[in-house]
Amino acid sequence: MFFRRKGWLRKEFDEKLLTQLLEYKEYWQSQKQLLDKSFDPSEEAICQTKIAEAKYIFLLKEAKHRNLSLKR
């Protein structure tokens, strides 16, 4: 009874993880491009870029730990 729900929840959260992973990848890349194009980046912009990179790497490690892959 309880064990059937476990697989369903895992699939649901795996899908959410993959969508968040793609969103943070795009966000991190856009922040990185903005920082590269900036002549004199502010401390806040540098910190935001590093935070976005850290979040993306964390989600990437979590996806690797769960053995997830994107089906292209």
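^ that was protein a. below is b, sequence first then the tokens
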Amino acid sequence: MMSFKELRKKEVISIKDCRRLGHICDLEIDECKGCICKIVVPGCKSLWSMITDDSVIVIPFQCIKQIGPDLILVDI
């Protein structure tokens, strides 16, 4: 099991263009199912389709392809 403290130290990378998106700053959790629905990363204006406001990128958990020791690879 991994804590949020450990998860937020990992850098989020897009596998489509190898872009560094940053580090996780928040999570959206489904309380009924007890699982993570989305990860939240500080914003990047070039990823307009995933931006909910000017300051964050919300990435659905299904888009996470791999969580490694230092990186989280996402397909967005």
